[in-house]
Records
---
Amino acid sequence: MVFRKLPGVSASGMGLRLSQKFVFLLFLSGLVTLCFGALFFLPDSVRLKRIFLSKTESQPVTVGSENDDMMLSRSKTESASKDEKVTSSSNQGANTDTSFDYNKFKKCLLKPPLGIEHGKPSDPQTLQRREKVKECDVWHCKSLYPLVLTVLCPVCFAGGLRGASIVDSLDTLYIMGLMDEYNDAKEWVETSLDLNSNGEASLFEVNIRYVGGLLSAYYLTGEEMFKRKVMVLGEKLLPAFNTPTGIPRGVINLGSGTSWSWGWASAGSSILAEFGTLHLEFVHLSELSNNGIYTEKVMNIRKLLNKIEKPHGLYPNFLSPVSGNWVQHHVSIGGLGDSFYEYLIKSYLMSDKTDEEAKKMYYSALEAIEANLVQKSPGGLTYMAEWRGGILDHKMGHLACFSGGMVVIGADDGAPEKRQHYLDLAAEITHTCHESYSRSATKLGPEAFRFDGGAEATATRLSDRYYILRPEVIESYMYMWRLTHDPKYREWGWEAVEALEKHCRVEAGFSGIRDVYAQTVSHDNMQQSFFLSETLKYLYLLFSDDDLLPLEDWVFNTEAHPLPVVHTE
Ligand code: DMJ
């Protein structure tokens, strides 16, 4: 068939004459210019500008005034060290010279981060207890500083990066007002934190401890150096996502950018609690860098998890980054699963309650957990069992004790008729975890406790009897206190302080113990960095007024690093 040109009609598809086309194009370009220009006359909206403008065009960097000691001077901002230059080509869009406006961010907060009086409690006993916790912070002892750097840090985190205790404790020191120690730690980060280290680093651990620690140090202090460091580190994590599904592998070499799966994880799988515990930090990396790639990566993980079939609505612990299928049907609210669930509700809260998808996923997961894992012991204790392909293992890990806190922070946002139910569930789980402490000789809890063979919240195996300064039980006390103000949570927290002081304090700081049931303790000579970032911080918050890091403005990552709620304007 031949198309013939009709008389009076141009050859263009639209059938317009050349002059008509010119007038139409002129009109169109005028319209586009008008719409774009209107953006600048509309009420100021960072979000709109973020969508339409490139980072160089958006808000200028504001340098703090001289009397604002939280802000860095421009000369300091400009003195980026060698390893802070972006070197990788994996993320061409990344830019360390971002336009994030720190002053504007602070104005969006509903309350001052450190409260009116740094959360100073009004009653003298609580204040005294808070002072004790502050004194427990090993950094308080100036003479120990070199020891912490050279001895404790390399052993406390075998992740290819040094200085975990330093980075993990920056915000704790700052919140406690230990400014000399904070300044020492800051200086070390600025001059000695090597982000190019060649070694086996866990993507998850680097994210929760280093990315989380640097992000919260930046948000709390406004020090540009922390932002530059975290931008570089964030970019170095991206190669781990180069898999057929975009589900990251667990291990990464930050120097070379190669990544691989844990040798112990079956069939090269990735772990739910690891790839499911990136969301909060990655959203903030995108916020700060004005580069959507980080959010894209975590949204891709969520998309896959949403789509995949879930046995009884549960999320198993192992998933193949190649096929995108579950590798085993083991489900746990403790190790290997825990913080994935925590990050669902916290993603919702951190989005200023706008992330409906995270909310939906959280409440359906919780429903499945309640239907399949939550149990009542013969002695009336509520616990979360583990699920092995449909068979229950009546064991609860110390790690799973964070769930009291998780359930209580989500109590207000589920179905209104379930609010009281969630408050009760959170209180029951926290009570069970407290029982695991009070049933031991040291009044510290074991790594895992059981509810079978006559056991009720006690460890039956020798290998489960250790305590490594973990925070989860105290974390739940802190949230339960904030949301109920039942004084028993402060009492339980104080019991823990006394037990830590009695059994874990050693000359150079605090140490884990090998058997919580032994009157004469044996120390493992290890101070985990989460003792400084989580255990001491949660205790300090427990004995502070609620206006210190108010929950309306801050969400704690799984390593207790406060990240700000992204308030909608
Ligand atoms: C911390 O590193 C984090 O809380 C993580 O999610 C699991 N638990 C340890 C401390 O026990």
---
Amino acid sequence: MPTYDPNNIFAKILRGELPCHKVYEDDKAFAFLDIMPRAPGHTLVLPKAPARNILDIAPDDLAHVIKVAQKIAQAGIRAFGADGVTVQQFNEGAGGQVVFHLHVHVIPRKEGLPLKPPASFKEEPDMLKEHAAKLAAALSG
Ligand code: 5GP
């Protein structure tokens, strides 16, 4: 298997070298909005520790990421009046992974509304800012 590349785009976001719309941060995890959301509130939850995907992450870091994904899922229901949540996580190119720092997709869902196709729509920064603020407020409420 390939090894972790510290120059992947999410590593740059974690180091603050590239911008993002932050939703949540603690000592071991970071969450921000996907720039090409498949539904409003589509959030990516990452470990801060360098890990390519589920194949190389330390089990405790993985457990923490999943705990944070649960908090984001619950907040997404409150913030967006969602009826459900889709959680996805891809591993290696053959598994559908495009960015090679582990991330869990948390996508609020409305009854009867299909997901937009992957990478089909780049959201406006103002809308992402509004959605990140809604999620952050739901997380602290
Ligand atoms: P995956 O690796 O799980 O298949 O997909 C990577 C995800 O990252 C995609 O949903 C894509 O829209 C998102 N993405 C790619 N580049 C960026 C970026 O620069 N910023 C943010 N916030 N999301 C990104």
